[in-house]
């Protein structure tokens, strides 16, 4: 729980603070004379004072950027919310920079953020929430100078599934990353030539050339077993020796793991606390099912599983990188976690960039692999961060694209599978998810669906409001669906008096399906029923034709068209296709 202190000196300040109190659940109010107490008790502070006065008041309290609360100043007129100190926060939660935006949202003020990386939208190494070693200042300067252009934006997102899939090259800099995680140590050579900044993502002990930083991913699990009464010092010494001999960094240890029966073993609990990582325990029967290289019958008789250290390290999958080691009263083993994959199934919308959702843009920018139809990939190629792998193919290769995307995600990569419109509507979501459940271990990766503006919605907006009441969508492509089934659906839609949107209405090799579908609809609705043909909605060459069921010229329809035929209630109103909602509007109460 983050507590925000509200420090006030005037009536106007107290009124503004009251607005924040009503908006936020965890606030505490202080008079200006109690600022020192707020400093001790709160995570972030909003001072309703001038910046000069605030600077003088907090100067004696400053201890260091890694400990001080973030402070925001708000002027008497509530015009500005100024991030003063602690921009990124002690816990990398955004600190005063984020707080300035939050305050501004409530008060209607303008946030003022002067931290260079935030002000320029560059991102900052100390916001990764991961250990970072090396020449942070030099690499940050390179970022601000554009030498790491866009690369760090994808680093944090990539680390939630594994490393970015690289190498990712920018002008004068290499963000070293690889499909195998973590990276092997880089060769170090002596040279008088100035070296470009470099960011390494690895759990190995490396000595990279300057200027460089090393980001430590949480990739290692240490399994621990011990006799009753083991000392924490012995456990810690064994762990550090095991990591050192394998050339692994303790800062990449994500957690300690052991058997449930050791959950209260004081030496193990204290070792986890000293390392600053959680202690995870597993039932003996689960550990007994994990295959290990060094099982022990003695251990089985004692705790019900032939292995504790190795089995606990491997319980959540991964690769054993340090087999079981012993000390007098403890055992330890180290496994490297397998990166968890991510499959984002992304709808790009009908074509125009401003109809692509911000969430879709974010998913495209964060991925390590982009999979899609070549013409859709071309639409968004400019959004890809440097080093993104692109897997593109032509029409008719839907199953291949789905299979590729799911396989890559199951291997631990961050994948975006893209399609036009909404990926769940006549697009890639269905085949990908079918394959994920039928052929791949879909529990090894996360699936994220990103909705998009469909062709039906884009065409409807151009025509007017044809979808104002009940409607349906039917694909007229019989490449994978028997025409008899399609015809039954068209007839059912006609009988139900639904507005119908026809996808895939006509191509060079399929020119009979649309006339037959219109003929079926004409059995139930008159020739004056409104109809519309929209081709290349929101794309260059867009055309919109408002017509009738009887007057629709099928020769103008292509595979890039969407055809909408109204219900018996549909009307053309002031040149717009409208299907009334059918409400009996009630007069407003007086």
Topology:
Layout: E1 4-8, H1 11-23, E2 27-31, H2 35-41, E3 44-47, H3 51-58, E4 70-74, E5 80-85, H4 95-107, E6 110-112, H5 116-119, E7 132-134, H6 136-144, H7 155-159, E8 168-170, E9 173-176, E10 198-201, E11 212-215, E12 220-226, H8 232-246, E13 253-259, H9 266-275, E14 279-282, H10 284-288, H11 297-303, H12 309-314, E15 319-326, E16 330-336, E17 341-347, H13 358-366, E18 369-373, H14 374-380, E19 389-393, H15 398-410, E20 414-419, H16 429-438, E21 445-450, H17 455-463, E22 464-465, E23 471-475, H18 483-495, E24 499-503, H19 513-522, E25 530-535, E26 543-548, E27 561-565, E28 571-573, E29 576-578
Parallel strand pairs: 1-2, 1-3, 3-4, 5-6, 9-10, 10-11, 12-13, 13-14, 17-20, 17-21, 18-19, 18-20, 22-29, 23-24
Antiparallel strand pairs: 4-5, 7-11, 8-9, 12-16, 15-16, 24-27, 25-26, 25-27, 28-29
Helix pairs in contact: 8-9, 15-16, 18-19
């Amino acid at each position: 729980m983050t507590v925000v202190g509200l420090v006030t000196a005037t009536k106007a300040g107290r009124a503004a603070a009251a607005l924040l109190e009503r908006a936020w659940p965890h606030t505490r109010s202080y008079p200006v004379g109690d600022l020192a107490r707020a400093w001790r008790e709160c995570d972030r502070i909003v001072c309703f004072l001038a910046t000069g006065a605030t600077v003088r008041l907090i100067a004696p309290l400053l201890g260091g950027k890694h400990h001080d609360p973030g402070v925001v100043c708000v002027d008497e007129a509530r015009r500005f919310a100024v991030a003063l100190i602690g921009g990124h926060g002690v816990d990398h939660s955004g600190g005063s920079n984020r707080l300035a935006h939050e305050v501004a949202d409530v008060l209607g003020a303008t946030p003022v953020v002067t931290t260079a990386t935030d002000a320029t939208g560059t991102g900052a190494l100390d916001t990764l929430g991961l250990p970072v070693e090396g020449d942070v200042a030099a690499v940050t300067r390179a970022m601000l100078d554009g030498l790491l252009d866009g690369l760090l934006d994808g680093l944090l997102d990539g680390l939630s599934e594994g490393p970015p899939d690289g190498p990712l090259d920018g002008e004068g800099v290499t963000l070293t990353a690889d499909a195998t995680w973590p990276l092997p140590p880089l060769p170090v050579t002596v040279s008088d030539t100035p070296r470009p900044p470099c960011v390494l993502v690895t759990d190995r002990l490396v000595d990279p050339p300057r200027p460089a930083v090393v980001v430590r991913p949480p990739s290692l699990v240490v399994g621990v077993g011990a006799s009753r009464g083991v000392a924490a010092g012995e456990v810690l010494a064994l762990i550090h020796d095991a990591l050192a001999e394998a050339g692994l960094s303790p800062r990449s240890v994500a957690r300690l793991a052991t058997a449930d029966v050791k959950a209260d073993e004081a030496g193990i609990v204290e070792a986890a606390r000293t390392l600053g990582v959680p202690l995870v325990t597993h039932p003996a029967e689960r550990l007994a099912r994990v295959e290990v290289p060094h099982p022990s019958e003695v251990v089985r008789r004692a705790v019900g599983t032939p292995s504790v250290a190795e089995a606990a390290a491997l319980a959540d999958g991964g690769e054993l990188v340090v087999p079981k080691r012993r000390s007098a009263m403890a055992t330890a083993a180290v496994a490297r976690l397998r990166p968890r994959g991510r499959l984002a199934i992304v709808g790009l919308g009908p074509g125009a960039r401003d109809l692509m959702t911000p969430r879709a843009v974010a998913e495209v920018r964060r991925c390590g692999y982009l999979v899609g139809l070549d013409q859709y990939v071309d639409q968004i190629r400019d959004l890809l961060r440097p080093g993104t792998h692109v897997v593109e193919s032509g029409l008719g290769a839907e199953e291949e694209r789905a299979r590729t995307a799911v396989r890559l995600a199951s291997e631990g990569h961050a994948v975006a599978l893209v399609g036009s419109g909404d990926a769940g509507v006549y697009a890639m979501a269905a085949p990908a998810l079918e394959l994920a459940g039928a052929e791949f271990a879909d529990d090894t990766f996360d699936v994220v669906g990103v909705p998009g503006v469909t062709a039906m919605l884009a065409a409807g907006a151009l025509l007017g409001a044809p979808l104002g009441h009940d409607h349906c969508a039917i694909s007229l492509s019989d490449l994978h669906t028997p025409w008899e089934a399609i015809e039954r659906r068209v007839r059912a839609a006609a009988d139900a008096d639904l507005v119908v949107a026809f996808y895939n209405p006509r191509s060079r090799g399929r020119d009979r399906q649309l006339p037959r579908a219109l003929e079926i609809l004409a059995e139930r609705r008159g020739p004056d029923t409104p109809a519309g043909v929209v081709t290349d909605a929101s794309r260059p060459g867009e055309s919109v034709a408002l017509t009738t069921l009887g007057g629709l010229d099928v020769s103008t329809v292509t595979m890039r068209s969407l055809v909408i035929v109204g219900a018996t209630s549909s009307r053309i109103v002031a040149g717009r296709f409208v299907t009334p909602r059918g409400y009996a509007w009630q007069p407003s109460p007086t």
